[in-house]
Amino acid sequence: xxxxxxxxxxxxxxxxxxxxxxxxxxxxxxxxxxxxxxxxxxxxxxxxxxxxxxxxxxxxxxxxxxxxxxxxxxxxxxxxxxxxxxxxxxxxxxx
Length: 95
Description:
alpha+beta, Alpha-Beta Plaits, four-stranded antiparallel sheet
């Protein structure tokens, strides 16, 4: 599995942007079968930065309603990557 298959997309929310500015952490949506070492290797391959720490969270689907119809959101596997001091990944100017 290639690095681009492991890291699907960055997660851009108010909470993740606050973590990025205060704690130097960035959140990514990752593949369902990715582990911490695979995520760390993929970050190093794509961005050229070796992460200090990688935490992985399985986010369960939420139940949503639209009128009488009930459905669920998608389940997501999220990786929170702590970067070394002085290192940064610019998420908004990627090619």
